[in-house]
Amino acid sequence: MLRPPAETPAPIPASVILQRLHDEVPADHFTLGWLMRSLHTRSFGIVMLLIALAAIVPGLSIVAGLLIMIPALQMIAGKSVPAFPSFIATRSLPTRHLAAVVQRSIPLLRYLERVIHPRWHTPLEATKHLIGAIVVMLGATLVFIPIPLSNVVPALVIALISLAYIEEDGVLLSIALLAAVIVLTTATVAVWAMIVGAKWIIGLQ
Q1: Dist CA 142 CA 58 (whole Å)
Q2: What pTM value is reported for the model?
Q3: Per-domain boundaries in the chain
Q4: Residue 123 — very low, low, confident or very high, per pLDDT cuts 50/70/90?
Q5: Which residues fall within 8 angstroms of residue 185, CB to CB, at 6 or more apart?
Q6: DSSP letters along 13-29, please?
């Protein structure tokens, strides 16, 4: 007698994961190492989502851009979970900053999760490599284009990509990746225009 195939368990919503994280975080300080151990296999998406949300805050975009490249490069390399260098992973960080980001994010995520759900299943490994490559390029725009407010759109796009990856929503992921291509194209054109303008100004001197 043939047995029906076992159903794949539905992914846990990002809002539920963040609520658990908020409830379990140490009172005063936490480390990225603790964060990795707490998130397990969901750590790539959640870590990138948290860093992307932090990157929206003025003054944090360069640091966030550098940090987000670490898990993104590890996704390209095919790692199962992200790992930060020990001097970063063991550094104590104030819990209040993490708690503030999580508390602001949970209500918004719960609202978005009304329409976000698993759709358009994509191969996990191939998707991981593509997302890693796109996030590395978006992270570079956060680092190398430190124009005021230029961090907001790339950070939001990374957050959307991360959310789609966590929720396994291929529709949202397709939209987010298209937005990423538009952002990267616009950034490339803007940088090229700045280079041409600088050469023209130098030529006038």
Answers
A1: 11
A2: 0.81
A3: 14-117+124-204
A4: low
A5: none
A6: PHHHHHHHHHHHS-SSE
